[in-house]
Amino acid sequence: MSLIPSFFGGRQNNVFDPFSMDIWDPLQGFPSSARETTALANTRVDWKETQEAHVFSVDLPGLKKEEVKVEIEDGNVLQISGERNKEQEEKDDKWHRVERSSGKFMRRFRLPENVKMDQVKAGMENGVLTVTVPKEEEKKSEVKSIEISG
């Protein structure tokens, strides 16, 4: 275990990922009114590439599909956003612990050029949003044999 605190809040993603457009929240982990901004950093996304598509799986427990937006910006940026609402406090409530994040969240990913932006599909089941971005078929290079004269 390191004695040096992580400047990146213990996040396990690749800071140097050229496609990631994450916004780092320097206030993450600090108890303050800025706690609502941690929903942005706590939204976990898996991105895998298959032969046919790029597939994004986003953990959004407790959210309905109507509370989430999936958009394409500037032709090649996938943006997933929404808002987790705070639970209403009643006069006689006594909270012992609040760990679930609330507030707005947004994740952005720059997509490679080999995708079919007009065929993006999104679905939500059991608190997991799945966004599928189909890839264009790779053009196979044609090899042509040339006779050597002489």
Automatic annotation (TrEMBL):
Span of domain CS: 40-147
Keyword check for Signal: no
SUPFAM superfamilies, per the entry: HSP20-like chaperones
Record has Transferase as a keyword: no
Residue ranges of every copy of the SHSP domain listed in the record: 36-150
Keywords for the protein's UniProt record, in alphabetical order: Cytoplasm, Stress response
Principal cellular location given in the protein's record: cytoplasm
GO molecular function list: unfolded protein binding
Places the protein is found: Cytoplasm
Family annotation (InterPro entries): A-crystallin/Hsp20_dom, CS_dom, HSP20-like_chaperone, Small_HSP
GO CC annotation, single: cytoplasm
UniProt-recorded name of the protein: 17.6 kDa class I heat shock protein
The encoding gene: 11415795
